[in-house]
Design a protein that fits this description.
single chain, mainly alpha, 2 helices, flat
Amino acid sequence: MKKFALPLCLSLSTLGNVVWAHEGHGLGGTHWHATDALGFVVAAALVALAVYFGKK
């Protein structure tokens, strides 16, 4: 599995250039949606839970 990890990560990192959405998405220019902020809130909550339960 380890020998596939680096090529997989490198392959996935190139997907940011291929975006089939409206203008403003991708690496060239970005903008935010309300759901993006919600995703960051959920991610922060998951990190906080992991830290909390990791110390127990």
